[in-house]
Amino acid sequence: MKRTILIIVVLSLVLGSACSQKSDTKKTPPSSIENPVKESQLTTIKLTESAVQRLGIKTQALEERESNRTRTYSGEVTAVPGQSMTMTAPVSGTILGLPDGKLPLAGSPVRKGQVLYRLLILPSEKDLMSAQEDVKLRQVQFEVATEKLKRAQQLYKDKAGSLRALQDAEAELANISAGLRVAEARVELMKGNSGNNVSEKLSTLNIESAVTGFIQRVYASPSQVVSANAPVMDVSALSPLWVRVPVYAGDLTLVDSKQPAHVRNLSDFNGSKGDREAMPVNGPQTADPLSSSADFFYEITNQDGLFRPGQRVSVTLSIKSQQKALEIPFSAIVYDIYGGTWVYEMANAETFIRRRVEVTDVDGGIALLRRGPAPGTMIVTEGTAELFGTEFGGAK
């Protein structure tokens, strides 16, 4: 009996201690929130009638429409095949610059038919070996032809010779003089001199650009000796350009490749600074097994030089199916510091409520919403930034 009473007393103490620990836990929770306020209680703005006019607030009803679905991919701008080429030396020779002695720099614009560089053709090795002997021989011929011309001039002056004999002597001297200049220039080449005085005496080729565009790369420098077919510079056309769009293989049947695409810079996420329409073209059938993607190609005009070959761009492609989406001008969207997207709903003429929305896409200045207020709700389209500043103290 005493043993039973002792067990009951021990159990009572244990249960009492557990209950006291539970009560202490309830009194001191591990975390607490002071002054809890719901999000909806922070988003209502009440303005006076004069304030509404001063902020220039305009509203529009939120609409739900059937719209073509789109999907945005990363693309790469490339030169059109055949409009990008490497200018090579047709024969062995010495690279000569333009009349100012310089070659065009990489990035310089060029026109079709514009002279890019000059090529001083090198004589054969056999001609170079006998160049000095050739100079001596032609010097003797030059002296003989000079004396012959003097005699012909004197005879013609004394009316003892014919005009034809005088003209033949002049032509012979001119031919020998030209040969002497070439021979002397070859000797200069043997000494390593390839200046303008040498180029004027030897034959040079003017290499012209075949396209209108810009110089992509330069591989040679003035006075550099190059062999036949050696690359000198790359020239690429600026307009039109192609855009290569790698698409995940699982989306190939979803993308409507016959519809135009919209290309824009990566920083132009809403298309307000240069959304460019690109037409589909039959490009090469390329794919990448490592990224499980296949390529679509589109052509864009680029007269203003907004894009350049090798540039990464954002490309929006059409999807074959349609969907219902809420549409609102992009000017109605405001972003908080965490990247959240919001709109202001007009409750009445002077009361505005900030509502969270989820933007799925922006096309031509129109934002498509996956979630947002009900269709028909009046949304502020102009003056949203002013309301946002009024709410958070950034405006007066």
Radius of gyration: 42 Å
Beta-strand proportion: 35-45%
Sequence of strands across the biggest β-sheet? 3-12-16-14-13-17
Chain-averaged pLDDT: 80
- CATH architectural group of the largest domain: Beta Barrel
CATH class designation of the largest domain: Mainly Beta
| Low-confidence spans | none
Shape: elongated
Residue share in helix:
25-40%
- Tell me the series of helices and strands, N- to C-terminal: HEHEEEEEEHHHHEEEEEEEEEEEEEEEH
> Helix- and strand-based class?
alpha+beta
As for the number of domains, it is: 4
CATH fold category name of the largest domain: conserved putative lor/sdh protein from methanococcus maripaludis s2 fold
Count of individual beta strands? 22
Total helical elements: 7
Offer a few descriptive terms.
396 residues; Elongation Factor Tu (Ef-tu), domain 3; OB fold (Dihydrolipoamide Acetyltransferase, E2P); 4 domains; six-stranded antiparallel beta barrel; four-stranded antiparallel β-sheet; 7 helices; 22 strands; 27% helix
Question: How does this model look, in words?
Answer:
By secondary structure, this protein is α+β, with helices and mostly antiparallel strands. It has four domains: 97 residues, Beta Barrel (conserved putative lor/sdh protein from methanococcus maripaludis s2 fold), CATH 2.40.420; 93 residues, Elongation Factor Tu (Ef-tu), domain 3 (Beta Barrel), CATH 2.40.30; 72 residues, RNA polymerase II/Efflux pump adaptor protein, barrel-sandwich hybrid domain (OB fold (Dihydrolipoamide Acetyltransferase, E2P), Beta Barrel); 76 residues. The chain contains seven helices and 22 strands. A six-stranded antiparallel β-barrel has the order 3-12-16-14-13-17. Strands 4-11-9-6 form a four-stranded antiparallel β-sheet, with no helix packed on it. Strand 19 and strand 20 form a beta hairpin. The termini are far apart. The model has no long low-confidence stretch (mean pLDDT 80).
